[in-house]
Amino acid sequence: MNIRKWSAVLGVLFLCCLAGCSALNRYQRDGELGLSGLKEKVNVLRDEKGMAYLYAQNMDDVLFAQGFVSAQDRLFQMELTRLFASGRLSEMAGEETKGLDIRMRTIGFFRNAQRHAPLLDEPTRRNLQRYVDGINACIRENPESIPLEFKLSGIVAQPWRIEDALTIMYYMSWGSSANLGTEIIAQMLVEKLGLEKAREIFPLNINPDNKDRGRQANTGSDQEVTGINLGPDQALLSFLETDSLRIGSNNWVVGPKTSPGGKPVLANDPHLDARILPGPWYPVGLITPEMRFVGAGIPGTPSLVVGRNSHIAVGITNSYGDTQDLYIETLDPKDPGRYLEGALSVPFQWIEETLKIKDKKAPEGFRLETIRIRTTKRGPVVSGILPGLKGHKVITLRWAPFETMGPALGLDKVQEARSVMEVREALKGVNWIGLNFVFADIKGNIGWQTSGKLPIRSQKDGTVPFVVKDGQDNWIGWIPYEKMPQSHNPERGWLGTCNHDTVPKDYPFYYSSHLSPSYRYRRLSELLDGPGVKSADDHWQFQRDTLNLMAREITPVMVKALMAHEDTKPLAAILSKWDFQDDKDLAAPTIFQAVYRKFALMVFSEKLGPELTALMLDNWYFWQERLQDMVIKGTLPWPGDLTMDQTKKAQEDLFHKAAKTVIEELTPSLGVNPENWLWGKVHQLELVSPIRRKGFGKGLLGGGSNPMGGSGETLYRGIYGFNQPFGVTISASMRMVADLADEDKIVAVLPGGITARVFDPHTTDQIKPFMEGEKLYWWFSDKAIRDHARQTLILSPR
User: Fold this and answer.
1) What is the mean pLDDT of residues 118-129?
2) Is the pTM above the cut of 0.90?
3) Percentage of the chain surpassing pLDDT 90?
4) Could you give the CA distance from residue 594 to residue 562 in angstroms, rounded to a whole number?
5) C-alpha distances in angstroms, 183 versus 325, 378, 380?
6) Which of 121, 230, 507, 723 could make an S-S bridge to 407, C-beta 3.0–4.6 Å?
7) Three-state SS sequence of 578-614
């Protein structure tokens, strides 16, 4: 038997073994289970989806039970998140992930969680402790429920601490702090083009609610932004890869006047990388005599950030407030162990971290490796020392949440809020993450508030790294909470955010230069400003809206260029009949996305070169609004001595050239007839198991490749990596619509399911509803929960 056939046989045996072991991957969901640590009994009712609703007599017990059931359902997923965020993946994956671990240790989520834990007030510490006590009870007292994935991965379930939950919360926050990539790219553009030419393609951020066309990033007139040369620094560029929990999203809330039930309706669909089953969000119901909250959070933390209680509903998006800065430091030429702040020489501080790396050749199966991290008063060094650079520059990273640690985390107060004003007050304590919260109460009030603390910068911008010239701190204060972007009961009757520029025209502070293009928000405005009453079902459909406003504006220009040439007329004919819906059974979205992508490459690559072009274009928010503005005006960058007519002709030629390249590239795989180039053939969401992400058996353990509509520009989000078209990487990781007039249920669906266990049906049973738009529910009232309960487990004090 040859090696290939033998490998196939082994693969089949492996899967058969897994199938046989799947019976061992079950856990108790019925009957009674004694646990030490509980004060009184807790009833765990699970519905048809496997979702748990916890009935406890006090907050201590409900949080304990939340930790317990989270571990029952998601312990392996929680462990992977903990290992990743703590810089410990090499304990499982070995040398392959050492570089990633070094980056995460350098940022220091766990290190700073250790600093934060002693600062917490007693109620916050108690809440976190009760949650991790529940996790540990599952590990310690219910060992038969430990997921099979631990054995298959060769790791042991370890106890949890408060610091672990805080680490994951900081990791979540990092996903909302996206300006690092913008700073790196902006600086590299300055190095390549000079400041003035680079500014021509810096991000254009548009708030559609403002009357002007948009704000352009301003680097500050006194900044020394040339002569730094970030380009070759792979140590620094590698930090662009640590964004697996990058948060996007849509959320909106409408007031009672357009709701059939006479109370607000809130919709939310957080956008994350949800390709690894069962998806990042874990929904649960927490019920005590004083409180009822049904919603979802990230497993490993007790915080439910999306959902409702009996009085309010809440949803989130990323606000993209700029909490990150890079600093250009200068080594002391007399002593490389020191750095200069003007004439002052200051010693670096050193932190030692020990990596535990899986190694079959080592005596214990692991080897230890010590790394040393240099820090300044601003933060850790994130670059290598680049040989030959003038002045021996190094780059450090500063992040606001590490400087705004407080005694409370705030989200527990949101869960307990009874009005819009109480939500707003609670969000004062949410200093550790920058989000757009929209919320409503049963009295008909609606609100929007951004969270987190943002620095006030002396240079009034954070688009490029800051050059350290003296000992003065460029962070000269914090934007007051009362001045953070917000709104309350607006006249238009609704509020919504789509990661776009939300600050008013006269806003006195720099907020961010990394913000989503305005397409999704403008489409949301078209839908919500339309006449008539809009039911929860209507909002559910809005979340799946595929109208592409960017395509609606650019396609006529593209069609004109392609129609002028016989070889591209067939593409133009398809585009000319398109209604700009990015539907999976249409060819036009494929043609538009493919041609526009090639066009963007051609626009920038001649001046920037292929590597910098690819890096910039992979950061969609950096260039999309800017390039569209140029295309519509016919003013491509750096026209030289060309007249306006010549520039427009050059643009048409680039569209034609791009289309010809697309025909050459797509014909072999999709056929000669472009009518058959259906979007769903290339734009697919592939859902995989964390223990079999590729290779034989991936399809059996995962959720397969699912043709998908939408794009990065539509409310029905389906982002692909610019340099790896067209497979979906970021999509809705959950959809939720909460009608406060409906006391029984919340409409909600996940891309995978409730559990995270091989062969458990509740790991994949929501894929079909998620892809097809079917409504599922989180039950809210006691009656609805009882009516839909399929299993009841009583957790008793031992």
Assistant:
1) 98
2) yes
3) 86
4) 13
5) 8, 16, 16
6) 121
7) CCCECCCCCCHHHHHHHHHHHHHHHHHHHHHHHHHHH
